Structure formats: C-alpha cells, structure tokens
C-alpha cells in the first residue's frame, strides 16, 4: 500500500519536472520563443556553477545566439571583407557595459565613430582607422565624461565636435595625424595629444586659457615651436620632443607680477627640444621645480 502511494506521488512530479526541463532546453534552440530578442539576436540568462573559497555558488551567465526560424541552420560564414561595421548594431560590433562602450581594434575596419547608446559616459575607440570627427558624432551624447581615440588616423576634427559635451573631463587624441586642434570643452581635466603633427599655428593662442580645471596636458612628440598658454590649474605638462627653441618670462611666470607663484605645477618636460633652458633663468622663478630639459 505504501509503495502504491509513493508511486502515485512520484509519477506526477517526474512528469512536471520533465516538462520544465524541456521548456528550459527549448531556450537554447535557435528560433525558440522564450528568449528575449535583440536586433536579430537574443540573450539567454542561465546560471553557471562556480567555486570560490571552497563553496559552490550560482552566478548569472549570458549566452548570445542568433535568432533563426525553426529548422534553419546557423550561418557561420564570416563577414565579407570590406564590410562596413556601421551596418552592425554598435553593441554587437563593440562591447557595451553600463555606460561604457569599448570599440578597440574592430574588424572589419572602423573608419568613423559608431552610433553610441544615449547613456554612454565612457568611450574607448582605440587603435582603429577613424579618419575624421564631425559635429554629428557626439551631438546627442551629452553624458560623455571620457573619450579615448588613441591610435587612429584622425587628421581632421570639426570645430564644435566637442562643444555640447559639457560633462567631458578626459579626452585622448594621442597617436593620430592632427595638424590643428579644435575648440576644446572648458571642463577638461586631462587632455592628451601626444604623437600628432601639431605645429604652433595649429594650436590657438587661447586654446587652453579658459580650461580652469585642466590638470594634465600632454603635447609631446609633435612639431610645436613654442609653449602654449598654460592655465594655473595645470600640474603636469609634457612638451618633450617638439621644436621649441625658446621660452620667455611669461611662458610660465608673469613679468609684471613678481609675487606670482605656480605651486601646482610639479612636472614640466621640455627634453628633446632645441631650447637651452639655462639661458632663461628668470623664466622659472615662479615654479617650485625646474623643467626637465637641456641646460647646456
């Protein structure tokens, strides 16, 4: 009697468990409905076992599968050469995390700034083949705080390309082909334009003057003939390996104010320039450290 009662309870439980297992497995089959579809793909949430500190625990995993009709075979053929990555959704072409987009060394070649999610705060698009920055590229992404475009082929940036980025704090344009700088956001704390083709005529006299929060300024390995105006807030400035031939009393200090000091400026690099710094002893009296460079 007990065996019969146990059997009556066990059979319905096994049937229900089997149905649940079948429904879960169907989520792993391309074309099944339970998964959430996203631009031709769907994301499937599962749980994976991991062992940490001797204990097993479940953590969410995400599996990306192409949505296909039932009975169709997945298309594993590679993207044809010369395909335009702009044709793909940005978050499939790049890695999108909460507020951050990583588009580094994208294949096929990325030649322009991709369309970004509205909430993007950090963009890393390094080592691609972006050639130009237009005013449209960041016009609608006012949440950006950091842009890193290091290692591209950028030779032109339209004036106003960064004008709407009122929250932008860090901008890196290093290792590109710039011959002039665009108008820069006033709230930048760090600007990097190392390894470009900048000459003094391509950097406006007041390019950095209104940037009262600027801390780090990197302009090394260019073709500058003079030191640009430096805001009082700057702590580090790199100008090594340019073509700077002289400095004046007003380069770092003020000739009309003998009490003027620059206590924040603690690193100035002028090494690799033709200028002989020992010829200008009065040019550094307001500084607590001497520039790194040639003195004889």
What count of domains describes the coordinates?
A: 2
CATH superfamily of the largest domain: Ribonuclease Inhibitor
Task: Indicate the percent of residues in helices.
Answer: 10-25%
Strand order of the largest sheet: 4-5-6-8-10-11-12-13-14
Which term fits the overall shape?
elongated
**What's the total count of β strands?**
14
Spans of at least 5 consecutive residues whose pLDDT stays below 50 are 24-87
Strand content: 15-25%
Pfam families: LRR_8
InterPro entries: Leu-rich_rpt, Leu-rich_rpt_typical-subtyp, LRR_dom_sf, Mimecan/Epiphycan/Opticin
Function: Induces bone formation in conjunction with TGF-beta-1 or TGF-beta-2.
Keywords: Disulfide bond, Extracellular matrix, Glycoprotein, Growth factor, Leucine-rich repeat, Proteoglycan, Repeat, Secreted, Signal
């Amino acid at each position: 009697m007990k065996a019969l009662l146990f059997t009556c309870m066990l059979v319905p439980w096994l049937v229900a468990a089997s149905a649940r297992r079948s429904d879960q497995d169907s989520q792993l089959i391309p074309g099944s409905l339970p998964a959430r579809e996203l631009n031709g793909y769907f994301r499937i949430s599962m749980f994976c076992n991991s062992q940490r500190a001797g204990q097993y625990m479940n953590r969410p995993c995400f599996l990306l599968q192409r949505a296909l009709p039932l009975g169709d075979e997945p298309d594993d053929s590679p993207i044809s050469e010369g395909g335009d990555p702009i044709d793909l959704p940005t978050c499939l072409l790049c890695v999108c995390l909460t507020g951050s987009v990583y588009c580094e060394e994208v294949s096929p070649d990325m030649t322009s700034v991709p369309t970004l999610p509205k909430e993007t705060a950090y963009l890393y698009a390094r080592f691609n083949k972006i050639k130009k920055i237009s005013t449209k590229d960041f016009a609608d992404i006012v949440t950006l705080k950091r842009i890193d475009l290091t290692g591209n082929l950028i030779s032109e940036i339209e004036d106003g390309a960064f004008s709407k980025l009122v929250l932008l704090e860090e901008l890196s344009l290093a290792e590109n082909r710039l011959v002039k700088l665009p108008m820069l956001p006033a709230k930048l704390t760090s600007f990097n334009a190392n390894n470009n083709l900048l000459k003094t005529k391509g950097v406006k006299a007041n390019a950095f003057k209104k940037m009262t929060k600027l801390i780090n300024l990197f302009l090394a390995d260019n073709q500058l003939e003079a030191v640009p105006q430096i805001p009082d807030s700057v702590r580090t400035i790199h100008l090594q390996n340019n073509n700077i031939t002289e400095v004046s009393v007003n380069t770092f200090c003020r000739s009309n104010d003998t009490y003027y000091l620059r206590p924040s400026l603690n690193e100035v690099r002028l090494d690799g320039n033709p200028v002989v710094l020992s010829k200008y002893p009065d040019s550094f009296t307001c500084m607590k450290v001497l520039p790194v460079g040639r003195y004889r």
